[in-house]
Amino acid sequence: MKIHLEVLTSTVIKRKKPWSQVIWLGKERESLFLLDGNRVSVLYVPSGKTKRNITKLSALLSEAVCLTSTTDGLHLLGIQSSGEVFIWQKDSDELKTICGLSGLLLSEGISLKGNCRLFSSVDCTELLLVIDFKCIFLWQQDQADLKNHTLSGKWLRVPTHSGTLLPLPDNKEASTDATFYNSEVFGKCCQLSIVFNKNKNVHVTTLLIHFDKLSQSIKQDKEDISISCTWSHIDWSLKNSAINYEPISMQGAIVCQYTHNGQILAVGINQKSPAHTCVLFVSPFIQTVLISDIKGAGVKDPASKRGRLVSEHCNSLQDQCEHNLLAS
User: Fold this and answer.
1) Higher pLDDT, 2 or 265
2) Does any domain span residue 5?
3) Are 140 and 153 in contact (CB under 8 A)?
4) Residue 241: is its pLDDT beyond 70?
5) Between 71 and 45, whose confidence is greater?
6) Residue 299: Cβ within 10 Å count
7) Which residues pair with 250 in a beta bridge?
8) Is residue 280 part of a domain?
9) Does the structure show a pLDDT above 90 at 61?
10) Which superkingdom heads the taxonomic lineage of this protein's source (predicted)?
11) Whole-angstrom Cα distance, residue 326 to residue 43?
12) Does the pLDDT of residue 296 top 90, yes or no?
């Protein structure tokens, strides 16, 4: 397959430290935003200049521990060290907040100082928070509460069982992604996968959450939340399919991305030699894995075994329109 790309414009960002995320925000008036930790800037492409002062967010970002956006690019979300979540609608410049998590974290003895990932449904009525790959919290908005600036809802810690395999602290390569979607069979769902190395195998732990009235009721803090949670596991040996498989344990060694329909999880497996990097296409539903060798794409000398530059690793995966996967 050949894809012809045209460069419409380019710019040089005047900052020595690279930004961790580049996202589009807004529908009526799109803008390019740069995210890095608790910093947010608007990029002006023609000049390469950035604007840091976003009035509604300036007072919140200093305490933010995690930033993310909805898949449609309409909302920017963040969670502060206090446990308060903020949701900014870019087009209307409207800011809403979610409280109630701090008490739950305190009772569970959990801190937000670790690795945090926040995922949101498109309409921001459900949130999924993952802390250190082992503590998972779900928030559901009360349907009657639609216009208040402080949104009311229920926080729940998603239960795990003794057989749930999760990364250990020394699994620095661990990566996670989640998606909210609607299924004709199951209705509204959320799917989360955590990928890490285990005994030289690639292990995928997946959580499937169903949101419907027929689901089992989970009771917490005298509140009933009707969801069902199903855990599944895939343990895949790349040694049988990739002769030169040499796993590495470092942050960013594994990257993963769900397709928008939640059917396929793409997993980029970086190795000691970037020329041997491969992509797994995992279907958690039917326990199927397909391996794709990217043939050393992006590596200056794919035939060389000496190339071990982190800059030549696969750093991100993005599901584009018509299910085209962009690896960079």
Assistant:
1) 265
2) no
3) yes
4) no
5) 71
6) 19
7) none
8) yes
9) yes
10) Eukaryota
11) 22
12) no
Tokens 């729940």 belong to which residue? 156
For 247, which DSSP code? B
Amino acid at 161: H
pLDDT digits (tens, 9 = 90+) for 81-125: 999 999 999 999 999 999 999 999 999 899 898 899 999 999 999
Helix (H, G, I), strand (E, B) or coil at 9: coil
- Domain end call among 157, 188, 215: 157
Enumerate the β-bridge partners of residue 327: 317
The last residue of one of the domains, among 132, 157, 182, is 157
CB 33 within 8 A of CB 24: yes
Question: Counting beta carbons within 10 angstroms of the beta carbon of residue 65, is it exposed (0 to 12), middle (13 to 18) or buried (19 or more)?
Answer: buried
pTM as predicted: 0.88
- Is 146 in the same domain as 189? no
Contacts of 10 (CB under 8 A, 6+ apart): none
Q: State pLDDT tens for residues 146-183.
A: 677 889 999 999 998 888 999 998 899 999 999 999 98
Quick check: is 324 in a domain? Answer: yes
* pLDDT at 300 exceeding the cut of 60: yes
